Amino acid sequence: YGVRILGPNTIMGVINAANGLNTTFERDVMPRKGSIAVICQSGGVGACLLDWACFYNVGISKLAFMGDKIDVDDVDLLRYLGEDEETKVVCLYMEGIKKGREFIEEARKIVKKKPLVVLKGGITEESVKRAKSHTASIAGSDEIFNAALKKAGIIRVEDIEELMNSAIALSKQPPMHGDNIAIVSNVGGPAILAADAVARNNLKLAALSDETKRKIEGLYPGVDATNPIDMIADARAERYSKVLELVLKDKSVDGVLIINMLKSCFFEPEDAEVIPKIAKKYPEKPVVDVPAGGEDFALVYKVLGDTNIPLYNLPEKAVKALKALRLYGRVLEKH
Predict the structure, then answer these.
(1) With contact defined as beta carbons under 8 Å apart, do 32 and 17 qualify?
(2) 61: phi then psi, degrees, rounded to nearest 5
(3) What is the residue range of 316's domain?
(4) Which of 64, 270, 319, 331 could cross-link with 197 by S-S, CB 3.0 to 4.6 Å?
(5) Residue 185 and residue 132 in one domain
(6) What is the DSSP string of 91-119?
(7) Concatenated DSSP letters for 70-86?
(8) φ, ψ dihedrals at 160, nearest 5°
(9) Residue 240 has what pLDDT?
(10) Measured between alpha carbons, how far is 48 from 41 in angstroms, rounded to an integer?
(11) Quick one: 222 and 166 in the same domain?
């Protein structure tokens, strides 16, 4: 009858958020319908990603837990998700590949249409042994694996959080077609940390035009419009709106990282509503937002969580998200 087998040792099975299918042990758990698909070789890692998606209300299209892959494997699932209209981004956690050449060939076709983000387990000598006993995987050389991913145009990340953060950015924002980042903030220290992270991730601080700087400083005499721009602690919606628009208009800017602290500042959560409104006017340039911290993040997330603006609780995470958007921009430029 042509019935296919997923597993064994899959533990979690599959979830299809579009039609409500859930074969996991968690019958009452269903992530919000969205555009991120997850392929996972580990039930434990998959359960973590599922919990993350539910907690932060991240939109998911499909989740599939492969297990030992005696029949359905990475290539089959990639091929399916590559054609799935509900999926914009594909995330993979894997510990080994059985059909390496086929996987790379299929991936090269898919990245022309949608980004692939991979987290690889079993990259150290110690963890390779555990991966083999865990899901019967042959991990192989990490150097070879990394080279193959780059050749295929797959974005590689280092941990579970970066996997989800990158997927959120790629599902909500356009790819970035340049290295130049503008930072717009109402505080100094986090903006400096963001600038450090930009350099560490092989991106650049945008050199704003003299005209842009002159207009910003003309509107707000106390503000130094050197990138990163510190709009100072009394910045509210009006200032964010005007400065963000001027920065996005600047031809030297390829993407924008916004920081909005609430504590010790005048900024209120509802002020964040101007960010997606202005960003919408410049759909070719990605914008990410950092309401840094814990409580501040939660308050702004209530306002922007359902918009197309990705939110991160630390500047370094937002920079890595922009890096993922830049990497996918390079993939599209090559393909």
Answers:
(1) yes
(2) -95, -55
(3) 180-334
(4) 319
(5) no
(6) EEEES--SSHHHHHHHHHHHTTTS-EEEE
(7) SSS-HHHHHHHHHH-TT
(8) -60, -40
(9) 98
(10) 13
(11) no
Residues 132, 237: one domain? no
- The answer to whether residue 7 is domain-embedded is no
Tokens of 200: 């560490």
Tell me how far apart the alpha carbons of residues 275 and 315 are, in angstroms, rounded to a whole number. 17
pTM, entire model:
0.93
Total domains present in the chain: 2
Residue 194 and residue 20: Cα distance in Å, rounded? 40
- The answer to whether residue 4 is domain-embedded is no
Q: Spell out the alpha helix ranges (H) of the chain.
A: 43-55, 74-83, 100-110, 125-135, 142-152, 160-172, 189-200, 210-219, 237-249, 274-279, 295-304, 315-334
Q: Are 70 and 210 in a shared domain?
A: no
Q: What angle do CA 26, 28, 33 make, to 5 degrees?
A: 100
Q: Which of 140, 172, 204 is the last residue of a domain?
A: 172
Average pLDDT, the chain: 92
Q: Looking at the structure, tell me whether residues 67 and 51 fall in a common domain.
A: yes
Encoded amino acid at 251, one letter: K
Distance of CA 88 to the CA centre of its chain: 12
CA distance 212 to 222: 15
Is-contact 76 110, C-beta < 8 A? no
Both tokens assigned to 147: 């080279």
At 89, the amino acid letter reads: V
Contact residues for 333 (Cβ-Cβ < 8 A; gap 6+): 177
CA neighbor of 49 nearest in space, from 89, 77, 9, 20: 89
Dig out the tokens for 112 from the structure.
């022309």
Asked if the structure places residue 6 within a domain, the reply is no
Final residue before a domain boundary, out of 108, 138, 172: 172
Residues 128 and 224 in one domain: no
**How confident is the model over 147-196, as pLDDT tens digits?**
889 999 999 999 999 999 999 999 999 999 999 999 999 999 999 999 99
Q: In whole angstroms, what separates CA 193 from the centre of its chain? A: 19
Q: What are the pLDDT digits (tens) for 30-81?
A: 999 999 999 998 888 988 999 999 999 999 999 999 888 889 988 999 999 9
Phi, psi angle pair for 236, to nearest 5°: -120, -165
